[in-house]
Predict the structure.
Amino acid sequence: MQWRRLARLHRETMHGYERRLAAIGGELKRIRECAGLPQHVMEEAESLVKRYFDLVAGFPPEVVAVAVLWTAAKAAGVPRPLEDFLKCSKADERRVRRVAWRLKEAVKQSRRPSVEDYVKTLAARVNLPAPVVKAAVDILERNRRVLFGKNPWVSAAAALWLASLKRLGLLKALAEAAGTTTVSIRKAADRMRV
C-alpha cells in the first residue's frame, strides 16, 4: 500500500516536462508493442523525443509517439508504412505527418556538414595530400564572411585550388569532383584572401 501512495505522490509532484515525457513514453511502449518494432527503434524514438522535446511539446502524446516511432523506424532501417502505426493509435494522420515533417527538418538541420567536410571529401576525390587540405581549411577560416551563403562545393574547390598554388590541371579535376565549372571556382578563388 505504501508504494502506491509513494507512486501517487510522485505523479502529483512531477514537473510538466517529466509528466509529458512519461505520457509520451507510455504511448511509445504501447505503439511499439502493437506494431511489433525492435527495441533499438524504441531507443532511437526516445532519444528523438528528448532531443527535440521543444519541437513536439505542443502536440498530444499519441501524435508525438506515432510520428517519432515512424521517423525512428526509417532512421533505423526498418521503415514501415504510416498506416501500421495509425492502426495502433487514435492519432490524427495530418497531425502525425506535420510532427514527422518537423522532426525530419530538425534532424536535417543538425546534420548539416561543415565546409571542412566538403574540403576533405573533394581532396579525397582528387587525391590531394594532407598539407594541401590543411592549407585549404586555413584559407576558408580566414574567408568565412566572404563565403557565407555560397555553394560549399565551389568554396571548397576554390580553397583547395588556391592551397595547391593554382595548378591548371587540378582546376579541371576539382571542377569535375565538385560538380561545377572551372569559371565558378576561379570566381570564388578571386573573392578569397590567401
